[in-house]
Amino acid sequence: MTPEDLARTYLDGLTRGDLTAVLALYRPGATVHSPLYGPIPATDFYPALFADTGRAKLDLLGVAEGARTDGGRLVTIWFQFDWTLPSGQPADFECVDVLELADDGRIAALHIIYDTVTARPAFEAEKGEGSSWRPPA
Known about the structure:
Layout: H1 3-16, H2 19-23, E1 26-34, E2 38-41, H3 42-51, E3 55-67, E4 73-84, E5 93-101, E6 107-113, H4 119-127
């Protein structure tokens, strides 16, 4: 799968809330590193994300392929995530996802990078104060 095909398949699965399609892109034991949910197994992250999503619209802005310094393969996806929480509250953000790929081309780890200045308050208003993950001090 080309990096652009991977990006489009991934964002399509997220938009549709298709757990099976999204998890098929991951190898067993893969981890997602999220600014709101923290480091969490992909098999736990996506059910939580989909439960916290009323509507998702994702627009691909760019895709890049590169390598880790240790030689591992990376795919970076830049997109706009118009995220609506179940209450109808918007929590939109522009995002960069960095995918570390395993030798078989599946995702071994995902690093989600975005500014939570608007998403975190909306998320915590919906789920309760302090409900989002924060890195240890």
